[in-house]
Design a protein that fits this description.
Family: Belongs to the G-protein coupled receptor 1 family.
Order of helices and strands: HHEHHEHHHEH
Structural class: mainly alpha
Membrane topology: Multi-pass membrane protein
Pfam family, one: 7tm_1
Radius of gyration: 25 Å
CATH topology of the domain at 44-192: Rhopdopsin 7-helix transmembrane proteins
Number of helices: 8
CATH class of the domain at 44-192: Mainly Alpha
Keywords: Cell membrane, G-protein coupled receptor, Membrane, Olfaction, Receptor, Sensory transduction, Transducer, Transmembrane, Transmembrane helix
CATH architecture of the domain at 44-192: Up-down Bundle
Number of strands: 3
Strand content: under 5%
Organism: Equus caballus
Largest sheet: 3 strands, mixed
Length: about 220
Amino acid sequence: MRRRDECELNCVKKIKELTKKTCQCPMENYNQISTDFILSGLFPPSITGLVLFILIVLVFLMVLLGNLSEILLILPDSHLHSPMYFLISQLSLMDLNYISTIVPKVASNFLFGNKSISFIECGIHSFLFLTLPIAEALLLTSMAYNRYVAICFPLHYSIHISQRVCVMMIIESWIMGSINSCAHTAYVFHIPYCLFRAIDHFFCYVPAMLTLACHG
């Protein structure tokens, strides 16, 4: 009886060891196999998915044309080269970059059925997705400050707000957004990932990627 119990205990230990080896991340060998992630996608492969895809593309084109028109209207007209319109044109540029970060890849995955995304491309997606919202929020704060000075201190407006000040506010928005994004992106892309690299999202969303990290 004792011998039988020892045999069963040894079998359980061997099963646990095999399971642990299977679940652990062979990071040394994985880079030789593949570094791509797989995106689950946004649209189901059905008529409903096609309708949703067409709607998203139409909205994307409307936003794209709207922001491009705004930039092209402000740039050539010297009367619109005031700080307020300059900041608005930069906000439109950020909106263009933001929607262009995700929608083209989602559309490409749905049309061509290729849901894989390279490690570098995924890093760029995550970096831009984290950078642009923060940069936009800071730019909107700068625009609010611009209106505050124009309304409350109209006689001092040209002293406090100038083209140089606007450029500095825009640069600071980009820098602050990039610094915050670099910290998150560097962390996410330095943790080990297991062989199963299917991201349960339609782009490289950081919380969804963290669920794929290896713990072993």
